[in-house]
């Protein structure tokens, strides 16, 4: 009987696909520098001078004012829940009035030009503070302000706001990755 076997021969080296067009197959030239490097930025650093700290506070208060107000409101709300139920109701009512004011401002652009937003918010803060005093929750208000304002100031001093922007599609805060050219001075951002 005859034994018929087949043998397949495989090449010893595999064929790799050709490189994409425009791709250099030569090794990198040692005299050639990369133009860009990727640096991840840390969102906090200590300002170099008191002037830069003051500028940073002003910018961060403008950029993060809504977040700071929500932080203070949340802490005040939590502090009032156990003993001051009437004060909580007044606080929520003032929050609703503020929300309605902002919806009104968004609806009527003329109102936005006539009345300054900061003035109205200051008036609403004064009315809220008077309500807290009349409902005997002033001690809660002052303790909350005494505890949260230093935290807000520390955040405003240490937070670098240059590399933060609001993503228009999602409406969220996004931190950028900074590209810097080599050869430039890597001076600290003062602000």
Detailed description of the structure:
- This protein has 191 residues and is mostly helical.
- The chain has a domain at 65-158.
- Helix content is 51%, strand content 7%.
- It has helices at 50-63, 65-80, 85-107, 109-114, 117-134, 138-158, and strands spanning 36-39, 164-166, 173-175, 178-181.
- The strands form two sheets. Strands 1-4 form a two-stranded antiparallel sheet. A two-stranded antiparallel sheet has the order 2-3.
- A hairpin with a 6-residue loop joins strand 2 (164-166) and strand 3 (173-175).
- Helix 3 (85-107) runs antiparallel to helix 5 (117-134) and helix 5 runs antiparallel to helix 6.
- The radius of gyration is 30 Å and the shape is elongated.
- The relative contact order is 0.18.
- Mean pLDDT is 75; it is low at 171-191.
The stretches of 5 or more residues where confidence is low (pLDDT under 50) are 171-191
Tally of individual helices: 6
Strand content: 5-15%
Side by side, the strands of the main sheet go 1-4
Structural class, judged by helices and strands?
A: mainly alpha
Family: Belongs to the PRA1 family.
GO cellular component, one term: membrane
Protein name: PRA1 family protein
Organism: Buddleja alternifolia
Fold blueprint:
Elements: E1 36-39, H1 50-63, H2 65-80, H3 85-107, H4 109-114, H5 117-134, H6 138-158, E2 164-166, E3 173-175, E4 178-181
Antiparallel strand pairs: 1-4, 2-3
Helix pairs in contact: 1-6, 2-6, 3-5, 5-6
